[in-house]
Amino acid sequence: MNGFFLLLPFLAVRFLLPLVLNPRALARAAYFAPMQGREKTAYYIYQICNITIFFYLFFLKIRPGNSWQFYTGLICYILGLCLCTAAMVNFSFPDETGFNRRGLYRFSRNPMYVAYFICFAGMAFLTRSGILLGLVILFQISAHWIILAEERWCIRKFGTRLDMSMKVG
């Protein structure tokens, strides 16, 4: 089976689910905080990796079989989709200030990035592609810089009343 089929559930969860739950959530999820310096470069690397991952999957095949790569990939892929679904549901219903503190957001202010990484890593293992895994790692490293910009923006928008004990992940 073509690797691109792995993206269909991911895209449905990432784009259709928030649109159905709360149309404003999709716009909120597409917003990137203002970036400075290296964060801007990381943003472009992040977007290039994202597009490359999507298109590269067209050229890969899912390789089922009795191997650790297949089972690791299947577990990561399903776990990533479940985490992404929970993150999108939680994200779709912020509190009155627009801040998310429920569900996965009690443990991490960035559960979507974590879910994307786990899901994409699962896709790399399911297709047994070292190149795809390298792209996923680069994607996640660049996401770290985007998270730094988001943290700064959140502190400016919501002030120091944020629960700083929350983990960044």
UniProtKB/TrEMBL annotation:
Keywords: Membrane, Transmembrane, Transmembrane helix. The chain crosses the membrane at residues 45-62, 74-93, 113-139. It is a multi-pass membrane protein. One of its GO terms (cellular component) is endomembrane system. It comes from the Bacteria. InterPro entries: Phopholipid_MeTrfase. Pfam families: PEMT. It is found in: Endomembrane system. This is Phosphatidylethanolamine N-methyltransferase family protein. It comes from Candidatus Blautia stercoripullorum.
